[in-house]
């Protein structure tokens, strides 16, 4: 053996020792997020502590309830507030993992089901793979939940036996992984960058493994490689829940049909469980499944209304065609002496005294109530009937973060501004609408005339504008 | 209640139904067989396996032939199907006892006499007889190394039990004439004899038969090549038949 | 819950140690016999001398018995919860004696458990609440923390825990879910084996058996396959072992008259012919419940027969019930009914009950009565001696 290769071997040995002894940190500067799908309490109470124990110091867990009756509060009660676990309760109409993925802030993330039991050393080995090869964006360990080459069916009497097996495997096969065509299992590691590019899981496929397979194929479409680790094994606990069988249970085949159609697979192969489409299918573009909440047909708009004085006529006149609105009224009793007016249950009236308080309330109002879209309205303007509707459309259909609607007299000026690329533009607040969850910028008062507010938008925002009657156009920084 | 029969095993008044499959038997022993059968059975059901002569007509001319099914094309190479079809046909007449007969088989007098006694009991569900292969004529039967079926018993007479499980092995040749399931039921081995005239033919006809066998089964998969060969024996060992009255 | 173990020998030889580790609600486990201090610490089990078990408050204990020769003890302890771990007769034991007293133990237990699939099937036909301590699944089906150890459970270990928890609940609920789950697991396993071994009559028969227990008419198909294969392979003695079973399936899932016909086909001895006649008689007179119960009994499914007969009130039904009780070793119930109906009782049965309850003199008297005038008492008294000897041997092994 040459001097060089002997040295390499020694270094590898030393490194391997440190890693197995848990003395090395994870190869990621910002730790790791682990999304856990909660559906079996008995498993979850064991899965989460094991993850906290064996995934290194810098782990945060996002546990999502996959069914309405999962006893999330009971489970959450087992963890102290200092422990890095957050719980997202079940929401109807949502595919919970997609919701959770939107919360991910670390460069790497893991998605796994609560039936997965891990043992020491499981994570580090998986995480190194994208560093071995930068085009690898998804890595899976072997388990009984992978179909195909990754499938490994084992039983261990105790966790100790499992740990011994994995330790042996890590010792023997550390560093070994290979590229595969598809993955389907209950444990996946991937990059945040990837999910931002291809989005989340397609819930219409119904069966989890089909959703994972579909997602992996979409990853391959943008050039990402899928890797299967030879060294790491995680233990999936099967369920006896499908027994005893109810009479007349129908098997879910719809998911398969959808999958097969989507990826142009020959029908008839379902019986073999064949999942890999012909290479040509990977060229057909697939729709991105957005992370976070499923956008409802009519998102909730929070309309913050500010005024010099609130006139009942204004209220009456504002019969907007768009209905799904939460109204927030900000009144300064110093200038507005009108009596109290009736509001509906979910609307809010914030009453303050003095301009400073009024400005503060305005700036903070949007943070108080969550909604998809937020816009500002001033009672000094009479908005046309379909104003809010058009704004909603522009935001949901486009990719702009913030929309300005320009009245005809402003339009020219607006176009001029954008053409010049002058990004220190200020926008009249009463014509601004933006996506919930972003910080639009700074609100200030145009000193020349009182209570005419301006928005200084944040430089990173994508701003679009709509004219009074025209389609939205977008401008990018 | 009426769809089932009680008692299951009658000790009196059993109907005897003969069942046959035939193919181009017009010039041979069929007429004689049907005449003799008509003396001691109550019904006859027949499947004509694609005959090209007037076999079907001949069958129809006998009053006791209550069911006759003629097939357009022969099922000769799918013996299992043919057997199953004949069985289903016979069973559809709701029989008590079934006698499986070939178009060249004759029951000796003693057997014909005993028939009723054999079936009017509740101890056993099938009867086997000794079959004799007559050779070259109707006076002698052959007995030697390859020709000794008369030393064994052949099951041809069975009690039909509805709700029993009947099946034939799914083969193309050498399928037994009656469902194999009968082997598990108690039976009676009778010393009564049946005369088989299939080989009681001229040397030319024997030669033709030999050629046909070789054509169908050149490798001896369904039967022994030596036995086929022995058809051509110039000096077969023959024994004189003595009819017992 | 506290547990008391009555084993077949020493702690070293005890074969159910892992099941002890997995016991649910495991407050305390006492093993009758000798254990070293180390063994007790490692296993979290306390040793108890045989003489001291009477000082335990039985209301708080579940007993796990794995030898039939503990039966007298179990009866005198008047335990509330008894789990019988039934085993095949060990080589050194007398088979006849072992089988008889295992039968009695199984009948007495609230839950019967066994590692032998043959015993599992036999018991499933005789009683409710039987668990098979084996399986063919390659994966884990549950997790549990016991003490400081994290265990992964096989499918039957998950069911073992459920079965024991279920014991302490309301026993009037019929056939718990876990029983059905296990039967389905078995059925699925054999059905997959049938696909792999299409010419194997045994796997088809087993598939049919489990489907039958589940009340699934698909049992017919598998039994037919098994029957045909038996005939093709010339195992011709299968009319009673294979064909008669159709009649039981038919009772459960099909037509009663067809079932009687199917039985009648298999009736050849004088006794069987009488049975067939009786069935036909009941059929014609509309006593369908008796027909169903008898057909179950003739197919050795006494549990199903008992279910039907125990809700009937005629003396004819009760007489049949006695027969079933005797077959499945529910001898105390049999005696009670016998007393009620006939005024007199079976001496052998009565004698055995006396013996088990420690009433030697009464036992001898019953056996002598049963033997009658031709002095056939010797085999019965000999059995008494054999039993007492077997118990002594057991105690010696346990105390060793």
TrEMBL record, chain A:
InterPro entries: Nucleotide-diphossugar_trans. SUPFAM superfamilies: Nucleotide-diphospho-sugar transferases. Pathway: Cell wall biogenesis; cell wall polysaccharide biosynthesis. GO terms for molecular function: glycosyltransferase activity. It comes from the Bacteria. Transmembrane segments: none annotated. This is Glycosyltransferase 2-like domain-containing protein.
From TrEMBL, chain B:
It comes from the Bacteria. InterPro entries: Glyco_trans_2-like, Nucleotide-diphossugar_trans. SUPFAM superfamilies: Nucleotide-diphospho-sugar transferases. Keywords: Transferase. Signal peptide: none annotated. Gene3D superfamilies: Spore Coat Polysaccharide Biosynthesis Protein SpsA, Chain A (3.90.550.10). GO terms for molecular function: transferase activity. Residues 20-165 form the Glycosyltransferase 2-like domain. It holds the Pfam family Glycos_transf_2. This is Glycosyl transferase family 2. It comes from Paenibacillus etheri.
Automatic annotation (TrEMBL), chain C:
This is Uncharacterized protein.
């Amino acid at each position: 053996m040459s001097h060089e290769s002997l040295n390499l071997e020694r270094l590898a040995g030393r490194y391997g020792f440190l890693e197995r002894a848990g003395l090395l940190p994870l190869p990621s500067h910002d730790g790791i997020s682990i999304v856990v799908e909660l559906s079996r309490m008995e498993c979850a109470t064991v899965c989460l502590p094991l993850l906290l124990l064996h995934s290194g110091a810098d782990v945060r867990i996002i546990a999502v309830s996959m069914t309405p009756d999962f006893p999330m509060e009971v489970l959450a009660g087992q963890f102290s507030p200092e422990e890095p676990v957050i719980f997202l309760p079940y929401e109807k109409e949502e595919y919970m993992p997609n919701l959770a993925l939107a919360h991910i802030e670390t460069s790497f993330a893991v998605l796994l089901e609560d039936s997965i039991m891990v043992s020491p050393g499981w994570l580090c080995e998986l995480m190194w793979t994208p560093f071995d090869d930068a085009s690898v964006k998804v890595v899976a360990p072997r388990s009984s939940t992978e179909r195909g080459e990754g499938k490994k069916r084992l039983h261990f009497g105790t966790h100790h036996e499992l740990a011994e097996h994995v330790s042996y495997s890590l010792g023997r096969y550390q560093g070994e992984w290979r590229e595969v065509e598809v993955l389907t299992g209950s444990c996946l590691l991937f990059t945040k960058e990837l999910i931002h590019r291809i989005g989340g899981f397609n819930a219409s496929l119904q069966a989890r493994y089909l959703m994972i397979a579909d997602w992996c194929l979409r990853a391959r479409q943008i050039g990402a490689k899928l890797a299967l680790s030879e060294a790491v094994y995680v233990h999936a606990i099967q369920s006896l829940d499908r027994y005893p069988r109810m009479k007349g249970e129908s098997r879910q085949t719809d998911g398969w049909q959808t999958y097969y159609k989507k990826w142009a697979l020959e029908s008839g192969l379902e019986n073999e469980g064949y999942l890999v489409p012909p290479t040509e299918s990977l060229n057909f573009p697939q729709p991105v499944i957005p992370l976070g909440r499923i956008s409802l047909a009519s998102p909730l708009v929070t309309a913050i209304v500010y005024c010099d004085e609130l006139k009942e006529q204004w209220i009456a006149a504002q019969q907007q065609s768009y209905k799904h609105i939460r109204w927030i009224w900000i009144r300064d009793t110093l200038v507005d002496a009108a009596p109290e007016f009736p509001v509906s249950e979910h609307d809010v009236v914030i009453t303050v005294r003095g301009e400073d308080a009024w400005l503060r309330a305005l700036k903070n109002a949007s943070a108080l109530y969550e909604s998809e879209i937020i816009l500002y309205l001033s009672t000094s303007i009479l908005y046309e009937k379909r104003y809010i509707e058009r704004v909603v459309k522009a935001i949901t259909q486009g990719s702009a973060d913030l929309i300005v609607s320009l009245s005809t007299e402003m339009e020219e000026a607006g176009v001029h501004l954008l053409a010049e690329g002058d990004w220190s533009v200020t926008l009249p607040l009463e014509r601004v609408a933006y996506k919930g969850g972003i910080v639009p910028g700074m609100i200030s008062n145009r000193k020349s005339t009182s209570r005419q507010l301006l928005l200084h938008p944040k430089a990173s925002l994508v701003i679009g504008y709509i004219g009074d009657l025209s389609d939205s156009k977008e401008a990018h920084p | 209640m009426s769809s089932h029969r009680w008692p299951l095993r009658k000790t009196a008044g059993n109907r005897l139904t003969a069942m046959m499959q035939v193919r181009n038997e017009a010039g041979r022993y069929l007429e004689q067989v049907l005449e003799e059968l008509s003396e001691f059975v109550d019904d006859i059901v027949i499947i004509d396996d694609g005959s090209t002569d007037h076999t079907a007509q001949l069958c129809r001319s006998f009053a006791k032939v209550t069911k006759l099914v003629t097939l357009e094309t022969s099922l000769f190479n799918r013996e299992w199907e043919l057997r199953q079809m004949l069985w289903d046909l016979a069973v559809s007449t709701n029989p008590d006892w079934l006698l499986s007969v070939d178009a060249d088989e004759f029951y000796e007098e003693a057997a014909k006499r005993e028939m009723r006694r054999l079936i009017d009991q509740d101890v056993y569900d099938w009867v086997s007889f000794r079959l004799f292969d007559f050779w070259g004529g109707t006076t002698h039967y052959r007995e030697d190394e390859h020709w000794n079926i008369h030393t064994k018993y052949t099951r041809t007479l069975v009690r039909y039990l509805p709700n029993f499980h009947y099946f034939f092995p799914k083969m193309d040749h050498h399928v037994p004439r009656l469902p194999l399931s009968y082997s598990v039921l108690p039976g009676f081995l009778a010393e009564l004899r049946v005369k088989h005239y299939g080989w009681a033919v001229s040397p030319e006809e024997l030669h033709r038969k030999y050629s046909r066998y070789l054509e169908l089964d050149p490798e001896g998969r369904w039967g022994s090549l030596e036995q086929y060969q022995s058809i051509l024996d110039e000096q077969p060992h023959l024994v004189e038949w003595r009819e017992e009255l | 819950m506290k547990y008391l173990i009555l084993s077949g020998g020493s702690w070293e030889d005890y074969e159910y140690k892992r099941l002890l580790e997995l016991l649910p609600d495991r407050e305390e486990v006492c093993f009758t016999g000798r254990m070293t201090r180390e063994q007790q610490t490692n296993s979290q089990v306390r040793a108890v001398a045989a003489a001291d078990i009477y000082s335990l408050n039985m209301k708080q204990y579940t007993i796990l018995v794995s030898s039939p020769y503990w039966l007298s003890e179990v009866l005198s302890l008047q335990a509330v919860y008894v789990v019988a771990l039934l085993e095949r007769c060990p080589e050194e034991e007398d088979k006849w004696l072992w089988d008889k007293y295992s039968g009695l133990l199984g009948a007495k237990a609230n839950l019967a458990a066994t590692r032998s699939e043959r015993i599992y099937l036999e018991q499933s036909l005789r009683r409710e609440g039987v668990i098979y301590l084996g399986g063919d699944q390659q994966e884990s089906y549950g997790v549990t923390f016991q003490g400081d150890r994290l265990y992964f459970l096989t499918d039957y270990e998950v069911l073992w825990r459920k079965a024991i928890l279920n014991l302490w609940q309301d026993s009037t609920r019929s056939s718990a879910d876990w029983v059905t789950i296990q039967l389905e697991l078995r059925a699925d396993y054999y059905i997959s084996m049938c696909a792999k071994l299409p010419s194997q009559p045994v796997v088809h028969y087993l598939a049919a058996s489990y489907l039958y227990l589940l009340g699934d008419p698909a049992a017919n198909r598998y039994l037919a396959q098994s029957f045909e294969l038996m005939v093709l392979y010339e195992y011709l003695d299968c009319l009673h072992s294979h064909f008669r079973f159709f009649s039981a399936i038919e009772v459960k899932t099909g037509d009663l008259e067809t079932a009687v016909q199917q039985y009648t086909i298999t009736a050849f001895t004088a006794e069987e012919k009488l049975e067939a006649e009786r069935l036909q008689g009941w059929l014609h007179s509309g006593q369908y419940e008796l027909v169903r119960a008898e057909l179950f009994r003739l197919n050795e499914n006494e549990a199903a027969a008992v279910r039907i007969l125990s809700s009937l009130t005629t003396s004819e039904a009760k007489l049949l019930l006695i027969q079933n009780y005797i077959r499945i070793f529910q001898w105390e119930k049999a005696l009670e009914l016998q007393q009620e109906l006939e005024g007199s009782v079976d001496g052998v049965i009565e004698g055995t009950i006396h013996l088990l309850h420690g009433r030697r003199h009464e036992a001898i008297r019953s056996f002598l009565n049963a033997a009658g005038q031709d002095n056939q008492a010797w085999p019965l008294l000999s059995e008494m001696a054999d039993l007492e000897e077997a118990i002594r041997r057991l105690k010696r092994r346990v105390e060793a």
